[in-house]
UniProtKB/TrEMBL annotation:
UniProt biased composition (Gly residues): 69-78
Protein name in UniProt: Phage capsid protein
Domain of life: Bacteria
InterPro entries per UniProt: Phage_capsid (IPR024455), Phage_capsid-like_C (IPR054612)
Subcellular compartments: Virion
Organism, as annotated: Deinococcus daejeonensis
Coiled-coil regions listed in the entry: 38-65
Length: 384
């Protein structure tokens, strides 16, 4: 049971619903056994079960935001943010003021998984000048893994000929054909640093918030752009939007909600199940402000209260895409992020003239690869 009041309240509500479901189910079974006319509990039980599922969804969402779930979504101990890991490290707490020193702290990979640093930055605000980041990032949609290589060579499906057919007994079976080609997906680095004063470095809550809100969010903002629009040249990743097929099912008079629903069908016709939608904030606004002929907002019919969704798909709005640009796809199976190593925060007061100016250099970096298994698992806005 969590010590957080918000989580505890939801946990209690879920437990109450489970108790009610169990009691009503046992009562029904007893009446059936005793030959008593069974009351119609079906509608009530269905309502309780629906409420139970919704409450569990809310509970998981809250727990993830608080960084209390393990990477697989199961229960676990309280996790630490990157900033807290840094300020509670031995290197930080035992450093000597006024001496030249450098040290680094290994962090969890910057993923959105609850056990990683990326999602665990949501700690109580400590540095009044900055707001805590609350927006989810594009990484949240992808399957994620780790690697120790500097690049990954992955067989990517090139062609598929499905010859499956009804076959008579003793007859030769038809042969299907699937061809692959090896593609190399390099690991790339995202990094930046900031200069801070000795005074801020001495303020553990302050530097903790600074790392979480400035350094790590800065990496994630660039990561969003790379995952979507990296061109694969130089030190860039190859982004999914860059290689995704175009939307082809437009019809005259379609609103954005119609277009996104038709995009889902385009993916289904390509034998893929969409799992997410990424779009620009202006386009998300346009969707949410769409109205029916009687003036009512359509969004309330296709969205949910627990998280932004459209036609059941999780939404991520991002400035990594321009207005009018969007990407839908099966992010779980069509592509995967591989983190090269644990994310790292390094600190030193020996860079340039830091020592004589009483300041520190704080560096954050991550290394990752994006493997795209099947470009047909995605669809983006039509060209032009």
């Amino acid at each position: 049971m969590s010590d957080n009041p918000e989580v505890k309240a939801i946990q209690d509500a879920v437990k109450d619903i489970e108790t009610s479901i169990l009691a009503k189910t046992e009562k029904r079974m007893n009446e059936i056994r005793d030959g008593i006319k069974v009351k119609d509990y079906d509608a009530e039980l269905k309502g309780l079960e629906t409420e139970h599922a919704e409450m569990k969804s809310v509970l998981q969402d809250v727990q993830v935001k608080l960084g209390r779930l393990g990477g697989a979504g199961d229960g676990g101990g309280e996790q630490k943010s990157a900033g807290r890991t840094f300020t509670e490290s031995k290197s930080y707490t035992e450093r000597e003021r006024g001496t030249r020193t450098s040290f680094g702290v290994e962090l969890k990979a910057l993923s959105s998984a609850a056990a990683s640093a990326g999602n665990l930055i949501r700690q109580p605000q400590r540095l009044g000048l900055y707001e805590q980041p609350t927006e989810p990032h594009i990484r949240d949609l992808f399957s994620q893994g780790t690697t120790q290589s500097t690049s990954l060579i992955v067989p990517v499906r090139k062609t598929l000929t499905n010859a499956a057919a009804m076959t008579a007994e003793l007859a030769a079976k038809p042969e299907s054909d699937m061809t692959f080609e090896d593609k190399t997906f390099p690991v790339r680095k995202i990094a930046h640093y900031v200069k801070i004063s000795d005074e801020l470095m001495e303020d553990a809550p302050g530097i903790r918030s600074y790392i979480d809100t400035q350094l790590l969010e800065g990496l994630r903002d660039v990561e969003d752009v790379q995952l979507m629009k990296g061109n694969g040249v130089g030190q860039n990743l190859t982004g999914v939007y860059t290689v995704a097929p175009a939307y082809t099912r437009a019809q005259a008079g379609d609103k954005k909600t119609d277009m996104f629903r038709r995009a889902m069908t385009q993916l289904r016709l390509a034998k893929h199940m969409p799992t997410g939608l990424v779009l620009n904030p202006e386009d998300r606004e346009a969707v949410e402000l769409e109205k029916g002929t009687d003036g009512h907002y359509i969004w309330v019919n296709v969205g949910t209260a627990t998280e932004p969704r459209l036609w059941g798909l999780p939404i991520r709005d991002t400035l990594a895409l321009a207005a009018g640009e969007w990407l839908m796809g099966n992010f779980r199976r069509g592509a995967q992020i591989f983190d090269r190593q644990e994310a790292r925060i390094d600190a030193t007061n020996t860079d340039q003239d830091d020592f004589v100016k009483n300041r520190w250099t704080i560096l954050a970096e991550e290394r990752l690869a994006l493997v795209i298994y099947d470009t047909s698992a995605f669809v983006k806005n039509a060209a032009g």
